[in-house]
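Lab notebook, bench 4. Continuing the backlog of folding jobs that were queued last week. Each job is logged with the same field layout so the records can be merged later without manual cleanup. Today's entry covers Glycosyl hydrolase family 43, a 325-residue chain. Filled in by technician R.K.

JOB TYPE: sequence-to-structure
TARGET: Glycosyl hydrolase family 43
LENGTH: 325
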Amino acid sequence: MKTFIMYFIFLFAFAPLTAQQKREIFFADPTIYVSGGKYYLTGTSGDRGVRGFSILTSTDLKTWSVPPEAGDTIHAILSRGEHAYGDSGFWAPQLFRTEKQHYLAYTANEQTALAQSTSLLGPYTQELVRPIDPTAKNIDPFIFRDDDGKYYMYHVRFDHGNYLWVAEFDLGNGKIKPGTLTKCFGASEPWETTPDYPSDPIMEGPTVLKLDGKYYLFYSANHYQSKDYAVGYAVSHSPYGPWEKQKNSPIIHRSVVSENGSGHGDLFTGLDGQLYYVYHVHFSSERANPRRTRIVPVKKQWDEKAQVYRFNADGDHVIVPLQVP
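JOB STATUS: finished
OUTPUT FIELD FOLLOWS
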């Protein structure tokens, strides 16, 4: 009898998970933060019903779960309420940290905002509940720390379309520094304004990487409901530009990853040392929402002649992250 019980336990422990036990993740505008040998994934909520942001964790990028500390089906790291700015439209989060604090930059009410916490898992709150810049609508914040310790906030502003902007950022008071606001660029390439889903020109979802003294700005173009929503990149010698768009853009596109609406995510270095980009794709060929989360390896190669790195997504090895109990 004991042998039978042990055999049953063995089968149960090592049996493959069923389709009901595994399910796709529906974070749009996703980001992945790497810390302590684990990955932490958050993004714009799709079917999760969260007025704010929730988080999942993984050690292999393939299977994800609610952090054990949560003890629930959803772990919210920021929730709508009196301690955080915004009551709707919680989009495009970014997690980062300093020596003393964890930060969450995000969009709500079509304004950028910054909350902080002593723990990666939150809750993230604001001492002063306010947006970063209330003078104009601005979304999709990405806060970048340069080698000299200065911070810059890359983001999107509206003017009959979406345009990428940057400003030096005062992390101490959560504001952009006066006189530093600079426009990066708007749509100018054919792939950035295809006729599939007519709209004003749209540039969004900035992420910045610095390598060997040069700045690489990754961004998405086209309306997110267009099947041609895609990711390209530009290079500059300065955090303010001028930016040179790279001719091998887009590097993430339906022709590369075989799914429509591929874009608006974040670059990160995996535990294996590999560079990855996490992004969203359309739910199906018929509709965009809710958007599905994807992860793709990104290859980096030095171009000796141009003196820049070239980036290409490995569309043959796209990861479909799944949530497990």
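OBSERVATION: Residues 2-14 form the longest helix (13 residues).
SIGNED: R.K.
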